[in-house]
Amino acid sequence: MNYFLNFTCCVFFVTMGCAQENYPAIETPSAINYSFELVVDGIDIPWGMDFINESDLLVTELSGTLYRVSDGIKKVVLGLPEVYLRGQGGLLDVALHPEFKNNNLIYLTLASSLGDNPGGNTSLYQATLVGNNLEKVSLLYKASPNTKKGQHFGSRIAFDEKGHIYFSVGDRGNRDQNPQDISRDGGKVYRLNLDGSIPEDNPFLSSPKAKQAIFSYGHRNPQGMTVHPYTGVIWVNEHGPKGGDEINKLESGKNFGWPIITYGINYSGTPITDKTSSPKMEQPFYYWVPSIAPSGMAFSTSDVYKDWKNNLFVGSLKFEYLERLVIEGNKVVKREKILDKIGRVRNVKQGPDGYLYVGVEGKGIIKIMPL
Amino acid sequence: MKIIVLIYLLSLGIFSSLLFQNKTKKESIKAGSEIYQDFCLQCHLSSGIGVFGVFPPLKASDYLLENTNLSIAGIKYGLRGKIIVNNEEYDGIMLRQGLDNEEVADVMNYILNEWGNKTSAFITPNQVSKISKSILE
Fold first, then answer.
1. Number of domains in chain A
2. What Cα–Cα distance (Å) separates residue A286 from each residue in A158, A240, B51, B59?
3. Which residues, including other chains, have CB under 8 Å from residue A85's CB and lie 6 or more apart?
4. Mutation test of the interface with chain A: which of B33, B35, B36, B39, choosing the one with the most A Cβ atoms within 10 A?
5. What is the pLDDT of residues B94-106, one digit of tens each?
6. Segments forming the whole domain that contains residue A59
7. Residue A112 — φ and ψ, nearest 5°?
8. Is residue A41 within 8 Å of A363, Cβ to Cβ?
9. In chain B, which residues have their Cβ closer than 8 Å to the Cβ of A45?
10. End-to-end Cα, chain B, rounded Å
11. How wide is the angle at C-alpha A206 spanned by C-alphas A203 and A208, nearest 5°?
């Protein structure tokens, strides 16, 4: 009898697991129309990167090193603020100020233990890059309270065309308190002016208890963020629980539902909620079943690659490939594996030369070239 | 007088238990289970079986069960490069997670005694403190 029950349960769960794979199924292309080249090597976890020009870029390594790579030569940038290493936390994203050419300013997100409580939380810094040194390092935002939890620091940085910087902070392993409470940090995307001040049209300025930097909430752990090339809307992807990774298009003041609504379940297989939608919460633009563990995200807008223009590219940490998503209308119509089995893909960006650059764990930065 | 002595002894007992928080093995395993949920589960999974060829198993893992000190060092300092676990090669990176010695001891006691793993050894923070990075080289 026991055997029969076990068997029935197995069949039930296996069937459920298969039936729920989200459309469109991932494809492996029959012909490979690209090659690749390792352009920066010797970086364990190349978490973030940004380009000063085609042959000069900044790369963060999670363990707390910022590199400047000029003409293929990698040098350590000195003057970083103290980085809190714990679990998924460390040195996270780096981004050049939109006017970097005139002011040499850069932004960094990193885990920091500043503040009273033990532990750490995500922070946003601004600094001036002078050669291989950081000067005038200033803290623009520090999420609080600190916690010794190892999960969900976020974080990515993006800019819109109106002089704002956006950055994400994950729920810091406290899903029941942080994501749905706008008086608390964590599980949010934040929007600031480029000098760190609060924009006058941020959505929660009239709520006295709210963190005024919040732009959207109800997020779990957003680690991919990019701006849509035509609409200017900020797109994020976030790690969900098992089967609940999402792409979301951000809108001011909107609630993206975590953990009240989700398509995912706990890693242990137990449910989190029976709801996948709610009238006051946003639906994802796309969700992945099974989870791919999405990292960096970028649109290809150049004419470098045949047929890839305006496609969305997302790194998969779990399945070790770069995913190409073809979007038509308001739907993902095709998904394809690029660089299959390359290693854990941590980040992807389009360089100023229009090529795609991919951060791969244990390798470094890879440049994709059309054949 | 007797009462004063009794109170003195009692408070001495309470203070010393607060000062020297020596966990029992059971308490350490329980604390280690929470550390595991936070820091390890995403790769090694709640079943401890990992992902074949990508994240090595902890359940019935010859590497873990036969190389206690190397395993401690891996958690304490991070581990990179090739290792062989149950005849399969793994060539990845496990980052240093920023755990203190007590947390490393707790999570070691947990993974050494979960999923059918069994060991008589009891890892202490003191033992973790003595493991140097050089044994990984």
1. 1
2. 20, 12, 26, 35
3. A63, A64, A111, B96, B98
4. B39
5. 989 999 999 999 9
6. 2-370
7. -135, 145
8. yes
9. 93, 95
10. 62
11. 115
Q: Do A62 and B54 touch (CB under 8 A)?
A: no
Q: How far apart are CA A84 and CA A262, in angstroms?
A: 30
Sequence letter at residue A48: G
Q: At CA A33, angle to CA A27 and CA A36, rounded to 5?
A: 100
Element (H, E) at B42: helix B41-44
Q: For B30-54, what is the mean pLDDT?
A: 93
Q: Supply the CATH number for residue A309's domain.
A: 2.120.10.30
Looking at CATH, the fold of the domain delimited by B24-136 is given as Cytochrome Bc1 Complex; Chain D, domain 2 (1.10.760)
Is A152 tagged catalytic? yes
Round to whole Å and give the CA distance between A282 and A258: 10
The CA-atom distances, in angstroms, between B57 and each of A12, B46, B50, B64, B119 are 26, 11, 4, 9, 17
Suggest the residue from B38, B41, B77 to mutate for an interface test with chain A (most A CBs closer than 10 A): B38
Q: Which value does ipTM take for this structure?
A: 0.76
Q: Hey, what are A125's tokens?
A: 């810094």
Helix (H) or strand (E) holding A241: none
- Which residues of chain A lie closer than 8 angstroms to B92, CB-CB? 361-362
Quick one: pLDDT at residue A10?
44
A31-78 pLDDT, tens digit each: 999 999 999 999 999 999 999 999 999 999 999 999 999 998 999 999
